[in-house]
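New to this. Look over this protein:
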Amino acid sequence: MRLTRGAIPLYYQIAQILRSQILSQEYKPEDILPTEEEMVRTLGVSRTTVRQALQMLLHEGLIYRIAGKGTFVAAESLARSGDWSVESIDGIISSGSVTKVKFLGSRSYPAGEGLAKTLGTAPGTMVTEFRKLQFVGDDPFFHIILQVPSNLAAKVPLDLIEEKPVFTLIEEYCNLRIQEAHQWMAASLADSEVARHLQLKRGDPVLLVERHFIDGTGRVVEIATDHYRTDRMRHFLRLTRPGLPGVAQAKYAEVG
């Protein structure tokens, strides 16, 4: 495993690498993973970092633990079939790294009124659009359109776009931090370009996901529009309740 000290936390990098090894079946179902002690020694990180990485994979259903025996690859998992759970911005980084990416090209154009309003710029301000295609194994999974103000996009190295999400490159090369992301999901239909890249027919159903990545000043620095194949995508949310496990909580309205 090769880790880099930078914007992406070390435990996310470890989780990405292990996830990739599981999806590629370098570690097959029911294989035992290296122990925490082995990973601490070989990676040069703390036990806490290793445990955070393993906890991510446990939540995704990729691995399971048996006390006194070790950590094993799960026989079945959502992620192996091309599904995953995203619970944070760093989770988006992690999920994007389990698949390979093909860069389809870029172009620049002046923003219209609607796009300019979303980006908080004046109409006519130049915007750069990146297009990518993401795969699970050899199968196309989703088509990506990214819109970034050109003054930021100009600093993004094109040779790294297939290796990292663009918003992480914006953070790294534009010296800013993505603080939050807003996401919308809707049913849609594939247009000619999306259908061609996803190996669908024009008009086939797709899942449309739009995300706005926002920096610490409240500025939208990237708009991502993704079209997912519905036969490969299933969105998972983990919902919890406050209070102690197993203890019901209720609030009663006063009756006047």
